[in-house]
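Each field is set out as follows.
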Amino acid sequence: MVSSPHLITCIESSSGAQGSNAAGNYVVEIACGGRHSAVITDGGTLLTFGWGLYGQCGQGNNADQLRPIVVPSLLGTRVKKIAAGLWHTLCVTVNGQIYAFGGNQFGQLGTGSDQPETSPRQLDASGFENKHSGVVSCGARHSALLTDDGHLFTWGWNKYGQLGLGDSVDRNIPCQVSFADCRPRNVACGWWHTLLLVDKTV
């Protein structure tokens, strides 16, 4: 246990260090899940650490990571956004591709199944055709994506209606949420609920 601020080195210059393959000079994005964490460098490299039981660190296994480690299958891919849920992780690349990994008991990865993924899996782009990913957020067991042009997609656990789809049915693929007279600007997922910032259009 650490009860006071503690410096964590994510990028090291020495040969063989955990950050030696991490492009960039400093960290620009951070996210915390239930028991795991993720960071993105200014070079677009994704590193993860913490509890790995469900593959939420994206290292291709279920091992815990005691220090920040580059996600190997995304090495060379520039990541710009990251979000972490209780047992899962989502990230968005500079090209708008969406990757998901970790626990998937309620479809929170959006892959169309309930199977966990220990390595990042790219989501089917057909639902996001001609839409550029803007904001991504994770709740405990659900996920949300807001595109740059104001389209909101949600998926995963929906027991309390947190997907905003008018029912309490879980979804294992991204589903678009309909709005009248407003344009979504930002989205944030809580453990069991979702908050949306909108502009009124009328």
Summary: The two ends are 52 Å apart (CA to CA).
